[in-house]
## 1
Amino acid sequence: MIACTYGNEILPDDIQKAQKNDWAYNLSKTIEVPQTEEWYANPIDSFIQEKLTEQGLLPSSRASKKTLVKRLYQTLTGLAPTYEEVQSFVFDNDTQAYEKLVDKLIASPRYGEKWGRHWLDVARYADGKGFSQPGQSALFPHAWSYRDYVIRAFNEDKPFNEFVKEQLAADLLDLKDKRDLAALGFIRLGQHYRDMKERQHEMVDVTTQAFLGLTVSCARCHDHKFDPIPTADYYSIFGIFKSISEPRAHDMPIIYESPDLEQRALFKVEMAKQEKKMRDFKTVAGKKLTGLARKYFSGYMSRISSKYTRKKPTYTAMRTTVNEFQKYLSSPKALESPLFKLWNQVIHNPKKAAEFVKQAKASKETTEELKTALGKLKKFNRNSVLDLYVGVAKELEKKPKKLQALMKPFEEVFTHHLVHNVKDLLHFVNSGTAGLKPKYLKLDLELQKTFSHPGAPAKAMIVKESSRPYNPYVFVRGQKDVRGPKVPRRYLQVLSKGDGVFKKGSGRLELAERLASKDNPLTARVIVNRVWSWNFGKGIVRTPNNFGALGGNPSHPELLDYMANWFMQNGWSIKKLQKMIVTSETFKQSSQLRPAAAKVDGENLLFWRKDPMRKSWEQLRDSIVQASGALKHKNGGAPIKLLGSNEASIRSIYGLINRRNLEGPMKYFDFPSTAVTCEVRTNTISPQQGLFLMNSEFSARYAQKIAESAEGDTDEDRTVSIYKKVLGRTPQEDEKTAALKFIGEARELYKNTYSRWEYGYGYLKGDKVSNFKPFQTFKNGRWQASEKYPDPVAGYAFLSAKGGHPGKGKNNAVIRRCNFYMDGTVRFTGKMIHPNKRTGDGVRVLILHNGKKVREWECKGKSVTTTLGEITVKKGDKIDLVVEPQKTMSGDTFEWPMEMSMNMNGSIDTWSVFDIFSNEQKSGITYSVWSCLAQTLTMSNEFIYVD
Amino acid sequence: MLTNTDKLITRRQWLQAVGSGIGTIGMASVMGQEKASNPFKAKPGQFLPKAKSLIHICINGGLSQVDSFDPKPLLEKWDGKALPRTFKTEFKTGGAYASRFKFKKYGQSGMPISNMFPHLGQHADDICVIRSMHTDVPNHEPGLMMLNTGDNILPRPSMGSWINYGLGSSNQNLPGYIVLSPGGYPVSGAANWRSSFLPGIFQGTYIDTKNTRIDKLIENIRNRKVTSTIQRKQIDLLSELNAKHLAKKAGEAEFDSRMKSYELAYNMQLEATDAFDLSKEPQHILDMYGKTPQCRQLLMARRLVERGVRCVQLFHAPGNAWDHHFDIDRLHAKNAAECSQGVGALITDLKQRGLLDDTLILFSGEFGRTPVVEMPRGGAKIDKNFKPGRDHNHHGFSCWLAGGGVKGGHIHGSTDEFGFEAVEDKVHVHDLHATILKLLGIDHEELTYRFSGRDFRLTDVEGYVVNDIIA
């Protein structure tokens, strides 16, 4: 139970007591390595040994070299060693071999891809916002620059204190490398809410948990119940985040171009296209808006005149355009106008109004309507002239052509202004007056989406200090409409020596500096604990985001403190810390479960063995792709959707993370929700995981690739080859026997496959098929009559996986024929899709059993359900799926995604015609027995766990 | 996560201390990296449960209470006139709008139900109407979030996730929390059934009931590469290889569980296909439910709870299906016609199978609607073309429960004389949650998960069990 809790209020005294006494707020700088009976080179082992001895436990023996090499590769790079890499390590007798391997792997670019991902969990990284208003982008188009920054930081071993500072205040630091601006993504990448005010609260939450391991958020509505954090502290930190401004995507700086030159060029083309669209739109919009001045011309004149004459204007809308028009009228440019010259003169020099009128009357240039009106004018002063103009304007409204000519100079100036001054244009567009908003939003969205192009440059999702920092006050009980006392922007009191009040700007830089300071008792311990937990599967403090009273008590507080001090003395180097951990005997222990030890410490809190760890979703997927030999290394860039038909064989860290809807397997393989910071990934076992590995497209695709790349002529050699690829070892005798037995049996089953398909064309006579002719040529994914297309006889007849096209006349119906090799019952479900409404006369669709019609449908320009109940079939039977043209075959392209379920004594198999489609005639299923074997190994515990 | 284990021990000690032996709660020890096991294993709660599973028929968009379950004859006197007392509403509202639906009293209890739901009358003595519901915000998103997750704004686990976390599921071959909606998501989408900080596996499995094909219904349910005979051989080989591996890793319980999980997955292929295949139902059952997608998914719900699925949630249709600011008489009637027969059939069907006692049905939207008319928007006038509707109302609304240990034929609480605000025996959504958990055998104060430094609950720091409605 909790030893100490606070009442309703935390008093200054409580804070002082905590500063003095609580482990969390005190980092002892002088920790001595315990003296153990056995001497260890690595201090970690001495600390671990001491606790084990206390409990009468012994550490486990060292794991085998085979295990160690796999463990090291997986831990440091998230990938498996190849068979050859395993062998070369196992037979390397160099006493330094292990250390050399550690150095090699830590230096590999793959290291950052594994370890950067760990930090991305903490940073609740996602490419999607999680909530977006209609018309807004659902993604952060530039989030990936942060992901790439994190990978680079780990690869370059950026000192952790720098890493902390950059993520909170890169904009306020003197950066050597402007790519580091991307670090600020940390602040902005959180979950979006309908209520955008939640976002700054989220920033407080992620910052304090990620760096300090403190749940400051608990103090949002009341003083923290268990930790010395008063509500005032919460709002002090809140004030800092409330003082940032978040530039729009357009205003985010480009920090570097895509390294992929080819893609970069493609992006430029795409971008130019989008920009042109936008420019064209702006020109159109600009013209439309400037045209309004013509439409409401007299209104405009009255509105402008009224500013001088103080008469009530007849028109009040569109203030901004009116102002722009007035600017033009008052500018020297107007002096060139046969209409506005007089107006301009009178405004600037009202005393000489009479003189100007006289000149205007006399001038040949003056517009006729103005002249006529002037002829009737009695008074010659400014106001009378201005009034006169309203009348003239009304007159001119009746003569649109003339008015257009007169207004042209203004419209040119103004359109240009609008196109280049986006702010004014947006003002109009957003006012909705001209109905331009939806179009604008669409173009803007497209423009933003262009940045998802693989050749897009990286833009940093920066924040800036707002011009005037926000002065926070407490929201009583967390309610934003109930104001409590004002609080300064400052650091948490329990971590402050003085008053902790920040003085520079919003205090964000000072906050970053305090967090990254050696005097901070938490930051180093929190990250050291995380690194430990990512190596061992659990931390020394088992709640890495919570070092407070409700967090888990540290199992080895002295070890943690020792490592934290060591870490800071060693330049906050994650790689050095990493090396210290993985070279310890503690890390090298065998994972073997020892019942006696388990009895004393069932959860292995004392680290008497190395726990086996289930591969994360990323590790699992990457290992499968890697085993197939298809893994492509990618140097950062815009995210790619990982699953689906366009899947790229890249590492999972570069896949799209859509916060609103994670991909299925990410959910069931325990990928974090990304709505909040993730301290430890959960570990579940569920049938959905099994279904994914057994049945998904992904799993089948890569198993097939593994099988295709397997070497050897004999079954035995191929089995060995597949074992090497998937498990990095050769099979043992009994395993080999089991695998070969499976191969043999499966092959037998394949031989006896119950159906084989043929693709051809033929003639229907009295609804029976006569003269079925198999297609002879397979080309571009289609079966057709001959090399020549259209064929002189069959014409346009072809069949593809999904559909096809009949040939000319009754002779040339296209036919998918299923030959049965077993008895059973079959059902068909599906629909004929014949999209062409306009030309031709449609098709006749038939299902025949042994040449006799079972059902038929007619279909033109629509889709027709072609589902059929049970048909009993015997060995040797045939079922034909026939599409016959009517009088003409024009426009008869069709899709016919039919599915066949066959029930053989209660065992049901279901296929669609495109699953079975093949470039071989009379073929059955194409997935080989070897693919099955490879897939089986990727489902094994040995593959799924890191030993 | 050690914290969960800590909690488990503490709770176990607590249970021992109070002399209760019913068991422990939550997933606790299964979550740590070192000890994963099947999270769906059925687990007992703290109380003897009245119900084993929950069917939530979500009237997303907001059902008008004065037109369905909360008759207000007084409105007729005030029809078209400004009420003496009114509330701030989301949009501009006008005078009272008396219900155009007809109420009739049904059953021994004489419960009034309007002709909007003609198939419910026969079950008047089975259902328990709460007329005094209220919630915090009159907007759909926060309203639905409150109803489904217990928080208006922050991403919290859904009720279905909590219940599965607490109780597991008695059928290992199907997901424990299944969400049905024809044609797409309601507003806020998957947030309505998310697991948030609970393990991802407790998230609701969404199924678009517009589809009739099983492989569209559940991801990866069907293998398209090999025959089922070959797949059987494959799983056998896998078991053999895993067993050899396990022999060298004696005592590794997690390896054993994972081995078995493939067997579950294999069986699920058949079981799930079966569960969603309505063609297996006899014609008279199909006829009893009716043909609309809403009715079909109600039948699906019965098939699922019958197979031990813990929570089934049904949304009427995508978006805000019941959100009728205008033309409410026609549109509410249309929606009701789509589901009324199915809802009536569900109760009849569960009853005739003896399942109603084990199944708790909740029929509720995120809030109700105003007894006053909503004014036309965008400068439109009230003329002969104006079709009246009602605005959102979170001050008071009705929901009902049936089966699973609730008092049938019972009406709990009331709204004011106009049906605007809950006044008597008010029930907040938090209280409804607490009560539902209790009926399922869970103490809502004990079902917690340690996250972000504190123990979270579905009911947060609120919630009182409404004992009055429990039989």
## 2
Amino acid sequence: MSDSCTAIQDKIAEMITGDLPQQDVIAVEQHVCQCSICREYMQALRADDRLLADYVKSMQETVTQLEQRVIGELDGIIETKSNRWISIGGAIVKSKLTRYAAAAAIVIGLFISAYFLGKKDISGVVLAEVIENIERMPSFVYQVEIAVTNTEQKKDDMNLKCLVYRSLEYGIRRDLLQNGKVVSRFFISPDGKEIIEITPGAKRYLRTILSGEKAMELNHQVDPIAMVRKIMSFEHIELGRRTIDDVEVEGIEFSARRLMAEVFDDGRGRLWVDAKTNLPVQIELEGTAGEGTVQFTLVASKFGWNAGLEASVFETGITDDYTLWAEFDLTNMEKAAVDGLRWFAEIAGGRYPSSMSTFIAQKEIFAAWQAKRKKESRKRDPGENDMKKMVGIQITSMFYADLIRDGKDVAYYGKTVTANDVDAVLMGWDVSQDECRIVYGDLRVETVSAERMAELEAVQLK
Amino acid sequence: MDGQSEEQLVAACRGGDKSAYASPVRRYAPQVFAICLGMLGNAHDAEDLAQEALVKGFTRIGELRDSERFAAWIRKIARHLCLDFIRRQKLGRQILAGQVEQNQTRPSDYPDLHQAITRLPEQYRLPLMLYYFDGQDTAGVARTLNLTQAAVCARLSRARKELRRLLGQRGGVQ
């Protein structure tokens, strides 16, 4: 290659950008007609140019997602600052990792306030008036403060707050806040047939469809009236009277796991009602999960009765630029629960959650997903499919907790049973005095006799 | 910018008008991302820092003295964040030496090109990224980088030649 070729190749590089003066372009073109080396060089640079353009095009989705995230985050910040319920000064979500942590929190919070509420059956007498009193309220608000402490990993410690708005006419809204910033909103339609969970920061939402009996059941579960009814159906201890915020209250104590097995492996709950008005003043739940490594405290308080909530409070605010993150159909709850286990095993390489506590299960699946992503050298937001799979295990936790609330004898062996243990009992519960339902390690589901269940469990326990 | 001057948009953003910032975010996101990618040579870090820069730019818009200088201001925020990141991560030496570890790069449909871009010196990579990502011509890149157009043309030319050399080492055009 001659010196003139070196000079021409410099010009070729400028020519690609279109900044070469016309007379130089002519000189280059004349040269390349005669010089195969420079001709090939020009062809290669043009190919590089196309390649760069294609590369940039392939990154367009990244830039679009970036735009959406920034706009969503700004929306969240401005909304937070303008929301009278929320203190100003929430921290800005600075990185995707923080967002994932927030996503984990969202997931934890997803059904917490809903499941705070339990189901039917009345056995108590003294507190029956509480139910009648709540039923008279067309709308009310309350808050739930949630503290999570992990004795092994301090970074998992979390303080969350839920603001719950309840209207007999418009349904339920629950805002989940972390560091004073709204990380998710949860809406339940008045008929209970649709649940929408939105994350304003990411401009995404989850949708859950229910129908028939399940919708009615969930409607009961999100209704504080039903919560009190459920608590009353549990064995409980009368706590007598005390004062909370200058209000004389009367309380009972019950099993926190019985009310919320999707959070607690063990723990106690207390319901305090105003001794004069017979309306709830405070509900406290405290307990542990993950063999005592994670401690939870949930306190529902600041009930505002007859809040005069208008329809606009229950508008989801989903606009055209929101995308659906995942959709769930809970028509067949058992199937949805098994799907949750299947997806967990897919992400976690055949393992199942060690506990049915949502926090533990969610933490484990998130860690497995991160490990998988790292292995694949990917650092992307979870897509619709990932999200569906990660949230799916929460449905399993709900299903498990539902069985316990219904007084079933439920066994779960996720700590030792994997997808390879084809015939081992992963989860089992009694459906009648003589029969049990079993989900095996390979996720087959069948009804067996109580004796058969006992045999299988005995083998496993050995 | 949707018929509004930068000054008008900045004023609207300052007033907390939600509809006002969507447009400038979309306008500046590619440029800010290109700057971050150009400085860091690593797409996933570039995404994080571009997001941080844009959010910081808009949430602190009240601190901007001259509304007309928003573009320069947000670029400055992005550059400072990137420099700070490089300092914090002690990556400066590695990046200058083009030794960003493999596990810090993102998977790409264009692995050889991506690797070659990563190995370009920042002074070449930055104008190249602005030229392609933000669709700026050389005059625009010159304004963004506060360089002369001739200097940008020279850097782009060298960037192309260096890129060709690196791609040639890896077996030619992908």
